[in-house]
Write a structure and sequence with these properties.
Chain C: One of its GO terms (cellular component) is ATP-binding cassette (ABC) transporter complex. The complex is a heterotetramer. By secondary structure, chain C is α/β, with parallel strands linked by helices. In chain C, 43% of the residues lie in helices and 21% in strands. In chain C, the strands form two sheets. A six-stranded mixed β-sheet of chain C has the order 6-7-8-3-9-10, with helices on both faces. A four-stranded antiparallel β-sheet of chain C has the order 2-1-4-5. The radius of gyration of chain C is 21 Å and the shape is globular. The N and C termini of chain C lie far apart (60 Å). Chain D has a two-stranded antiparallel ribbon. Chain D is an all-alpha fold. In chain D, helix 2 runs parallel beside helix 9, helix 3 packs parallel to helix 5 and helix 4 runs antiparallel to helix 5. The chains are: A alpha/beta, B mainly alpha, C alpha/beta, D mainly alpha. At the C-D interface, helix 3, strand 6, helix 4, helix 5 and helix 6 of C face helix 1, helix 7 and helix 8 of D. Bound molecules: adenosine-5'-triphosphate (ATP) (2 copies) and magnesium ion (2 copies). One adenosine-5'-triphosphate sits at the interface of chains A and C.
Chain lengths: 264, 184, 290, 273
């Protein structure tokens, strides 16, 4: 039960190569962060995973089925992708109808619909906004609506593209809880983010992309210890960890409490 | 519109409105048995733009959009382009000061919209278009009247029905923003 | 003359039940860099919209109270003149492309065309901001074929090129990688050094702490604190508004909670380094003397 | 293997020099002033109307093909024009030919009939319409809308007016992009939109409403984006990309075209009336 990218390359129609010979596998129930510079190819990579894009060369296998051999819709039922730009995903005129889109399309029973929608709403904390228009919601909340809409379908893999952008502290905590919950249920979660503190606190496995390629794939502590990888992907440690390192408090720890404990 | 849209918004709306009018008119024309006449659904969108952005936008979007349709088709026929402009203008004028953009779309407004669309259609297709045909192109009067009346009937029906549909959909996208409570 | 003065300002979006801004009183001085913080939906973008006249010119709603921008009441401003005097980078990075230019290079030049800048100067300005943001590789691309972060950089570059004296910047780094984020902040600092007045909304509190002069805290549409960064970031108003502290300040707070408080509460990395290394030396000295 | 990676340009002096020179499409015919080309297109339409039916129109079609190759857009033009000939031409011819009103029909049924005269008439009309289509297609193949607008601005057309036209054309492209966005959103929710014609047609309707609604909400976003770029400032504005001033060649071409037009009118009155 994995998503596997075998030597995958992808070029956009204008000729720009966005992903270059990437090999990557995400197993069921895993929790993975993808980090890297702007334009490194993160969004392109995950769009390849759910079939929205098909590789120019190489293969993408979802549970051993080549995404090129089936429709995007079929792949997408397994692999839910939450768009970087929520406006690209949300078209309902109110939040509730957005959430009930898949149930209505698949003619689910009312109970099943209610149960799944309620669960998705609870996980994302958007209960207050059900009757509102997604267009009027602040960016961050719109993003949660987009996540909830995908959770309703109970996919086996969930991909979140920059869910931390513009999120406040409370939103971050909520997101962290949500990811944990999905992991407990055996759903794999792949998250693209630029928030290094969030990565350090939430993910064990971190995939680093730079210049269209995967340059590292390791536990967070290892990645943030690897000066070479950090330099090549132009990444930085979370501020607290930077401080610990500057002060020579080895090992440069990532969690704030560890840093605090190291200070006499 | 309680407040006239800013000049920038109007300019943008003319461009986008004309494009929508063009696409619908050029590629979604439903043919009828009567030669040279098809059911045009673009007037519904035009009416909606006139309601949302005012008479100037309605007039210019209609005129330019129609010009684009004809310029990429069988040639420009200025009296009908003017008629489309007049249609947008009149709908806009008759619906000045509405609050659709804020999500208000009840029965009174629906009635007002329908009346405005029918009136505007009458002026456009029973007066401007035939008169223009006779003046600019010296077309036989009875032929242009038949064409005009047909256009009047079919455009009135489609514009009212589809226009109401689009407006209510649009108003739904602008529903009352409830009190967004600050805790999640 | 104050840059912006707001007295008892309330704003409610058309047909919203609750006001987005309530009883806002603020006096902003020119030449400073203001950071605006607050939870999602606390009214930060709305505050920017009012300062730049987007409210009431573009968004319907009820605005009460007095707003003076550069000494002139908001209602007396010609909207076009406001757009020339105050640069505004919007929050949403995906909706700021003009749609009428085919390459990033021309997209960035668009604002300069509208201002009537002559060609040589246009080229110079565009090149300058392209270098500043490090987007040389993108200049030939169609603005619609960019990644999220690239779009945000191009949007920022387009406004930067116009070189207005006052800038309102709403979350310019939400989609940016750490390095680009630092670069954007460095640019903002240079702008300030050139004498520009800047209002910056940002969730990344660590960076705000490093760069801004003063901080405005919003909570549920109300301004709950305004003052020098050092004071505001160490005050309880920040917690009350649900805004996290900078990591270094958080470390200091946790130390204090354990009865090992520092002499001063740092908000920047440098300050933290100084006070912590002092502590480290102290303890090692204690150690050796014992 | 992927080889066509676009190399980023180096922003050196030679690159920047492009912006100091007038915009060029790299072909002398296409680099004629867009307004001159527009005038030529109109005059050519007049000429077509003056020339004897069928032969004249056919000659204009042929001329258009030759011009297209001269302008370096031959392939594109021929592929579009061929489709027009098949679709528009075929349709018009059939519709026109089956309404013979005279007696010596080859075949008749109810109101329909085909006769030698109806065939000639239909052919004449069809080729005439095709010639008009050829002129129009050629014009748009030669002149990017952006250049037409620049030329209009050069002769004093207001920037807002030229923006409206440019934006209209752009919005048509944007609508296509909107359709793709909505389709992508549908697909990612597991709604089948690929496959048979029936399935695609079924997917079409639910896409329409969101596409138009998002086009409408784009109006506001676009307006704000333009306002941020000081679109509404009324001072003199400048052009980044600019056109060459019309020169002697432009006037010569226009003159030649005028002579041709006058000639065709005289011809129509005196020779082949
Ligand atoms: N639609 C497109 N057409 C052409 N090129 C594109 C398109 N979308 C992205 N690209 C290019 O492909 C490269 C990779 O883009 P991608 O969106 O995958 O980056 P990313 O890692 O997600 O970056 P970000 O963090 O900024 O979102 C970029 O250089 C970008 O310019
Ligand atoms: N166009 C609009 N119409 C109606 N209500 C709106 C509109 N824009 C914002 N609001 C509401 O006004 C309130 C303040 O929103 P605002 O966008 O100013 O928050 P913010 O502090 O910028 O949030 P974020 O951190 O998510 O950007 C919210 O309750 C929001 O839902
Ligand atoms: Mg991305
Ligand atoms: Mg905001």
């Amino acid at each position: 039960m994995t998503i596997r990218l075998d030597d995958v390359s992808f070029a956009y129609p204008d000729g720009s190569l966005a992903v270059d010979r990437v090999n990557l596998a995400v197993a069921a129930g895993e929790r993975v962060a993808i980090i890297g510079q702007n334009g490194a190819g993160k969004t392109t990579t995950v769009k390849l995973m759910n079939g929205l894009l098909r590789p120019t060369t190489g293969r993408v296998l979802v549970d051993d089925v080549d995404t090129a051999s089936q429709t995007t819709a079929t792949t997408a039922r397994q692999v839910a992708y939450v768009f970087q730009n929520p406006d690209d995903q949300i078209f309902g005129t109110d939040v509730r109808s957005e959430l009930e889109y898949i149930p209505r399309h698949d003619r689910w029973s009312a109970e099943r619909t209610n149960e799944r929608v309620r669960r998705a709403v609870k996980m994302t904390g958007i209960g207050k906004y059900l009757d509102l228009n997604p267009n009027d919601l602040p960016f961050a909340i719109k993003k949660f609506v987009a996540i909830a809409a995908m959770l309703v379908g109970e996919p086996r893999y969930v991909i979140l593209d920059e869910p931390t952008a513009g999120l406040d502290g409370r939103g971050l905590a909520l997101l962290k809880r949500l990811i944990g919950q999905l992991e407990d249920e055996g759903t794999a979660v792949v998250t693209i983010t630029h928030d290094m503190r969030f990565v350090a606190d939430t993910f064990d496995r971190v995939v680093v992309m730079a210049q269209r390629q995967v340059i590292a794939d390791a536990p967070a502590t290892e990645i943030f210890d690897d000066d070479d990888v950090l330099a090549r992907a132009r990444l930085q440690r979370p501020v607290g960890a930077q401080l610990a390192q500057d002060l020579g408090l080895a090992p440069a720890s990532l969690q704030l409490d560890d840093v605090v404990a190291l200070i006499p | 519109m309680n407040r006239t849209p800013s000049p920038v918004t109007q300019v943008v709306a003319i461009g986008i409105g004309a494009a929508l009018f063009f696409v619908l008119g050029r590629f979604v024309a439903i043919p009828t048995p009567i030669p040279n006449t098809s059911i045009s659904i673009q007037y519904a969108i035009l009416a909606v733009f006139a309601v949302l952005y005012g008479p100037v936008v309605g007039a210019l979007a209609g005129f330019i959009g129609h010009l684009l349709i004809d310029a990429t088709g069988y040639g420009i026929w200025i009296s009908w382009e003017l008629a489309s402009g007049v249609f947008g203008l009149i709908v806009g004028v008759l619906l000045l000061r509405n609050a659709v953009a804020e999500g208000e779309f009840g029965r009174p407004l629906a009635v007002r919209f329908s009346v405005a669309v029918v009136l505007a259609n009458a002026l456009a297709w029973l007066v401007v278009a035939p008169l223009g045909d006779v003046l600019f192109y010296s077309e036989p009067a009875n032929k242009v009247w038949v064409q005009g009346s047909l256009a009047f009937v079919s455009n009135s029906i489609t514009a009212v029905v589809l226009g109401l549909l689009v407006l209510s959909l649009y108003a739904r996208t602008r529903t009352r923003t409830g009190s967004l409570s600050h805790d999640r | 003359m104050a840059l912006i003065e707001m007295r008892d300002v309330n704003f409610t979006y058309a047909y919203a039940d609750a006001p987005a801004l309530q009883g806002v009183n603020l006096v902003l001085q020119p030449g400073l860099l203001y950071g605006v913080v607050g939870r999602n939906a606390s009214g930060k973008s709305t505050l920017c919209n009012v300062m730049r006249g987007i409210v009431p010119n573009f968004h319907d709603g009820e605005l009460t109270g007095d707003v003076d921008v550069l000494g002139t009441p908001l209602r007396d401003w010609d909207p076009a003149e406001l757009s020339r005097r105050i640069g505004y980078v919007f929050q949403n990075p995906f909706t700021q492309i003009s749609g009428i230019r085919d390459t990033v290079f021309e997209e960035i030049a668009l604002g300069l065309e509208h201002l009537g800048v002559d060609r040589e100067q246009m080229i110079a300005r565009v090149i300058e901001v392209v270098h500043e943001l490090g987007i040389e590789a993108l200049v030939e691309k169609d603005p619609n074929g960019l990644s999220g972060g690239q779009r945000q950089k191009v949007a920022f570059a387009s406004i930067l090129a116009m070189d207005a004296d006052v800038l309102v910047i709403d979350e310019p780094t939400s989609q940016l990688d750490p390095e680009s984020t630092e670069e954007v902040f460095a640019i903002i600092r240079r702008l300030k050094e050139k004498g520009k007045s800047i209002i910056l909304v940002e969730h990344s509190i660590d960076l705000l702490a490093e760069y801004v002069d003063r901080i405005i805290v919003l909570d549920g549409g109300r301004v709950t604190a305004e003052g020098p960064a050092q004071d505001v970031l160490t005050s309880p108003a920040l917690d009350a508004a649900g805004v996290p502290r900078p990591e270094v300040t958080e470390i200091a707070h946790r130390l204090e909670a354990q009865g090992r408080g520092l002499d001063t509460t740092p908000i920047t990395k440098d300050a933290a380094r100084t006070v912590l290394s002092a502590r480290l030396q102290e303890t090692s000295r204690d150690h050796s003397t014992r | 293997m992927i080889s066509n990676t676009v190399a980023p340009p180096t922003l050196d002096a030679s690159y920047l020099d492009r912006f100091r020179k007038p915009a060029s499409l790299g072909n002398p015919v296409r680099d004629l002033n867009p307004l001159v080309l527009l005038a030529c297109a109109v005059l050519l339409a007049v000429v077509t109307a003056m020339l004897p039916e069928l032969v004249g129109s056919a000659a204009v079609c042929l001329a258009a093909v030759v011009l297209a190759f001269l302008g370096g857009v031959g392939r594109r033009f021929v592929s579009v024009f061929a489709r027009l000939v098949l679709a528009v031409g075929g349709f018009l011819f059939v519709v026109r030919v089956i309404f013979a009103k005279d007696a010596d029909t080859y075949w008749s049924w109810g109101p329909f009939g085909i006769s030698p005269t109806s065939i000639t008439e239909a052919a004449g009309f069809t080729v005439f319409v095709l010639a008009m289509c050829a002129i129009l297609t050629l014009f748009f193949a030669f002149v990017p809308i952006r250049h037409l607008m620049l030329a209009l601005e050069d002769v004093g057309v207001h920037r807002k007016a030229s923006y409206i036209v440019l934006a209209s054309f752009q919005a048509i492209t944007d609508l296509g992009a909107n359709v793709r966005t909505v389709l992508d959103a549908q697909k990612s929710r597991g709604v089948e939109t690929e496959g048979s014609i029936v399935r695609r047609a079924g997917a079409f309707l639910p896409v329409l409403a969101p596409v138009f609604l998002s086009a409408m909400s784009q109006t506001e976003e676009r307006a704000l984006a333009l306002d941020a770029r000081a679109f509404n400032v009324s001072s003199r504005h400048s052009q980044f990309v600019f056109l060459r001033r019309p020169g002697i060649t432009d006037w010569a071409v226009l003159g030649g075209m005028l002579v041709l037009t006058v000639g065709s009118i005289i011809g129509k009155v005196l020779l082949w009336h």
